[in-house]
Amino acid sequence: MAKSYPEVPFAAIVPCPTVENDKMVTGNWRSLRPVVDMETCTFCKTCWLLCPDASVVSDDEAEEISFNLKYCKGCGICSSVCPVDAIRRVPELDFTD
Amino acid sequence: MTTKKRSTGLTAVCDAWQLVDIDVTASYPIRPYTAVMAEVAKRIANGQMKCEMVYAEGEHGQFSIAHGASMAGARATTGSSGVGLTYAAELYSPIAGGRCPIQVLVGDRTLDPPGDFGSEHTDCLTMRDNGWIFGWAQDAQEALDNSLMCFRIGEDPDIMLPQIVAMDGYFVTHITQDYEVPDQDLVDRFLPPFKPKFRLDVNNPVIMGPQITPEMGPPLEWDRNVVMQRAKGKIVEVTEEFGRLFGRHYAPFVEEYMTEGAEMVFLLQGAHAVTCKSAVKYLREAGYPVGMLRLRWVRPFPEEALQAIAAKFKVIGVIDTGTSYGAAGGGGVLLVETRASISETPDKPIVQGFTSGLGGEVITHDEFFRMAEMMRKTLEAGQLVQSSTWVNFNDYV
């Protein structure tokens, strides 16, 4: 019995996702996880602006940032651009989740 | 009104690009391609052409710009020669797989080393397996006509594949020839405006070339394979329509010259066919039962067309103006593909290979005569005397 393949879109062109693509979770590549210290953070949002994978989540009401770990690949750009050194990079093995 | 013109193959393709009103062209100088970019620039400056001409930082950039322009909905072109074509290597598969029907003009050129700018077909044959439609023009007129046909075939909604309009560097790109520039109204009737299936549009955003899961790969490649096979039917249809409209009738795949009663035939592509025809005339007078087959397309490779006529001949001498070092049979790409095409054909002829015209050398009458004599020896022996002969190096006559 021949294997049946999924229907694919013409030239793999797909509408831009407006929600997360659950079929392509890429955060599992990460070896260092960003951790923000909200005591030090000034909510300047430089990290939010420069994250290449839109994985910095900004809560404008609470004036807090967090990270979408499903897609954050741990590149560390957020940490290196932070003007007040509020973001540390912690080895994934230090976490239980 | 059809205009008679005397100019080069590159100018002829520029005439085609002007007639089809290209939107974007990306340029980077390399001989012999350079002349077309100079010609386009001149015509933009003169107000004859309206298109965006983007100067790239190299051939990889050129192909990327044309790729992006096509995704944005533009009729886009670029071109190159020799090592320029190989420098752009990364882009061939994404452009074809993204089904962007850009057109690339190739004035072919020997790959380095050494820095030889003479014609050789190795440059774009090296890039043959990515899903581009391409073949060689034998003169300026055919270069112009192939450009028009390629736009029509490649932009067809059932096809949507990029094309290479290839021609021999110098022999076609730079030698002044007589050709006809067709009437604008006819071209407009022949080629409708480019309608991409998808385009980059901020109001309807799409992702082109997204990350996919492994199981999406095979069906996408199957699609590209199917459409490449389908292109053969489209080539027949468009070549016929082109003949009806413009009055120049090309064989869809294989041009036959003096094959009536021929027991042996040369098989080649590109500008050397012009010399070959002249040589065949002399050879016929001298009693050699020889004719010529000229391939108009190398992708898709016209295997059915060859199968249909192969049994008429006893010996086919494939002339490769390019190299494929270490290939089966010791010749070039055309020898391998010709043998593969007719391998299961009943009463198939003996197929022998010749490598000639490398480095931009002319294949002379004398060399065609010697190849004919070697084919005659094969005919007499009823079997291969030598699988592949590099003319002037290991000739056996």
- Broad CATH class of the domain at 29-94 in chain A: Alpha Beta
Query: What proportion of the residues of chain B form beta strands (DSSP E)?
Result: 15-25%
How does CATH name the architecture of the domain at 29-94 in chain A? Answer: 2-Layer Sandwich
CATH H-tier superfamily of the largest domain in chain B? Thiamin diphosphate (ThDP)-binding fold, Pyr/PP domains
Order of helices and strands of chain B: EHEHEHEHHEHEHEEHEHEEHEHEHEHE
Q: Give the beta-strand count of chain A.
A: 5
What does this entry look like structurally?
The complex is a heterodimer of chains A (97) and B (397). With 97 residues, chain A is of the alpha+beta class. Chain A has a domain at 29-94: Alpha-Beta Plaits. In chain A, 10% of the residues lie in helices and 21% in strands. Chain A has a two-stranded antiparallel ribbon. In chain A, strands 3-4 form a two-stranded antiparallel ribbon. The model of chain B has no long low-confidence stretch (mean pLDDT 96). The longest helix of chain B is centred in the middle third of the chain and has 30 residues, at 217-246. Chain B folds into two domains: 3-246, Thiamin diphosphate (ThDP)-binding fold, Pyr/PP domains (Rossmann fold); 254-390, Rossmann fold. Chain B has 13 helices and 15 strands. Chain B has helices at 9-19, 34-45, 59-71, 82-87, 92-97, 122-125, 140-154, 184-190, 217-246, 272-285, 303-310, 333-341, 365-381, and strands spanning 3-7, 24-27, 52-55, 76-80, 103-108, 133-137, 163-168, 177-181, 206-207, 254-257, 264-268, 290-295, 315-320, 350-355, 388-390. With 397 residues, chain B is an alpha/beta fold. Chain A binds chain B through residues 5-8, 10-17, 23-24, 26, and chain B through 97-99, 160, 197-198, 204-213, 215-216, 218-220, 222-223.
